[in-house]
From TrEMBL:
Catalysed transformations (reactions): RX + glutathione = an S-substituted glutathione + a halide anion + H(+)
EC main group: transferase
Every GST C-terminal domain range: 87-211
Transmembrane stretches, start-end: none
Domain of life: Bacteria
Signal peptide: none
MF annotations from Gene Ontology: glutathione transferase activity; peroxidase activity
Organism: Paraburkholderia phenazinium
Lineage: Bacteria, Pseudomonadati, Pseudomonadota, Betaproteobacteria, Burkholderiales
PROSITE patterns hit by this protein: GST_CTER (PS50405), GST_NTER (PS50404)
Keyword presence, Transferase: yes
Gene3D superfamilies cross-referenced by the UniProt entry: 1.20.1050.10, Glutaredoxin (3.40.30.10)
The protein, known as: glutathione transferase
EC number(s) from the headed UniProt entry: 2.5.1.18
Amino acid sequence: MLKIHHLGHSQSERIVWLCEELGVPYELEKYTRDSVTRLSPPELKALHPLGAAPLVEVDGMLLAESAAIVEFILARYGHGRLQHAPDHADFASYLYWFHFANGNLQPVMLRTMTVGRCGLAPDHPVQTSSLDRLEKVLALVETRLAQNDYLAGNEFTAADIMSVFSLTTMRLFHPLDLTPYPNILAYLQRIGARPAYQRAMAKGDPDLTPMLT
C-alpha cells in the first residue's frame, strides 16, 4: 500500500486527491508546518534531505517530487484513467498543461510571493516584471478555460490535479484576487464539486476551507 507523507497546506494535496480519484488505497501520514517559519517540520527533513512534501513510500522506495509521483501512480494504478494516450486528440494539450503546472504556474506564483515580501516599491522593475508575468500566465489559463471545461480539454485529467493547488491553497501564502478571471473561478467551482476532491481536502487538510472563490 502507498504511504503518503502529506504536509498540511502544501502541494502534496495533489497526491491525496489523485489517489481518491483513482480509488487507490493509501496510508496518510500528516505533518504540520512550523508556526513561525511556515516550513516543513524536522520529521519530514529526517525522511528527505530537502524536507520537501509530498513524499510517497511504496515497495521499499521513497519517491519525491509531486509530478514524478503523479506519473508513477498513473503508470502503476491508473489503467489509462486521468491521462490521454498518444493517439488521443488532446494528448499534446494534456502534456503541455500537465507540465505547465510546475513549469510556469507554480513558479510565477512563488516568485510573486517572494518578491512581494521584499518591500520593494510598487514601480520597482523586479516588482512590475513579476506581476506582469503573473498576469500573462493567469490570462493564458483564463483563455484556455474559456474554451474548455478543463485544462487538457473537456475531460478532467491529472493536468488539473497538478494545477489546482497553485490557484487555491497556494493563495494562503500570497493573497490573489481571481475576480478578473471568471473562467478560472467557474473552473474552480467544477473542481470543488468533485467528490474525490472534497474527500481529499477533508482528509488531508480538515482545518482548511478550500479556496475556490
